[in-house]
Amino acid sequence: MRLKNITGIALSALFLFSADAYALTQESFPFQAEVLSGNINIRSDSTVNSPVLCAANKGERLTVVFEHYGWYKIILPKDTPAFIRGDLIALTDPETASVIKDRVNIRLNAGDSSPIIGMAEKGRVLKVLGTSGAWYRIEPTDSCFGWIHKQFAKKLALAPRATAPQAVKAAEITRAAEPEIPEPDKPSIDDTVSVTGVINPYGMVFKRTATHKIVTPDKKIFLLKGDKKILNTVTYHKVKVTGKMVLKAGQKYPVIEVTRMEPLD
């Protein structure tokens, strides 16, 4: 019995340490990384056997949104091949299209068997680059991801913050240039809450207050305010979200200002 208690305590401590480590790691994303060598493969998954999506050149800067076992998950460069089926979009002009179906796959090549590199929600506006049969080549969205091994990319340092006198001077210039705007009523903020459920895009909602939502097992919905790029990486996955809940009169769903995410699948 004593051994079981010790084992249980050890496992609990390990779980809490892992969760905290994940939260700390999440706080550092996204960041910019510079490619260290030429012609480095960007792959569809974090293994050397996964399909190659494109290549990165030395000195190219990439946006890193996640790290997994020595690999960086990155937003694909704009010159990466990306295709979408023509019957799933509506052209608004020769260079622009809007997605007309939910959860449409974006693929590497023009074909249903080609690797999926991203997903677009209904209403998403796309930049059209050309056609290939019944498919349209588009510019990859910020929801199109690939993987690069971290040995080929280094994290770039953040730009230095302005000193206090510079910050004050900038604020004074901004206040002088802008008219006075009445401050809106501030929403009430409750204590920290944790919610478990599946992350979904919130969709194209007029004047939306959030880009994503979490749906709990009992079908309750909470809107999520956080880094869109990070939320995109866990879309359609089960997670535990922790943050401050914001309640505002007339709001359809409560909003959680995300401070921590823990993947559960």
How would you describe the overall organization of this protein?
The chain has 3 helices and 19 strands. It is an alpha+beta fold and 265 residues long. Among the domains are: 83-139, no CATH class; 188-263, OB fold (Dihydrolipoamide Acetyltransferase, E2P), CATH 2.40.50. The strands form 5 sheets. It has a 5-stranded antiparallel sheet. β9 (104-107) and β10 (116-120) form a beta hairpin. The longest helix is centred in the first third of the chain and has 26 residues, at 2-27.
Q: Can you give keywords for this protein?
A:
alpha+beta; globular; 265 residues; OB fold (Dihydrolipoamide Acetyltransferase, E2P); 3 helices; 5-stranded antiparallel β-sheet
In a few lines, what is going on in this structure?
By secondary structure, the protein is α+β, with helices and mostly antiparallel strands. It has helices at residues 2-27, 164-177, 228-233; strands spanning 31-35, 40-43, 52-56, 61-68, 71-75, 83-85, 89-93, 96-99, 104-107, 116-120, 125-132, 135-138, 145-149, 153-155, 188-201, 212-215, 221-225, 238-247, 255-263. Helices cover 17% and strands 42% of the residues.
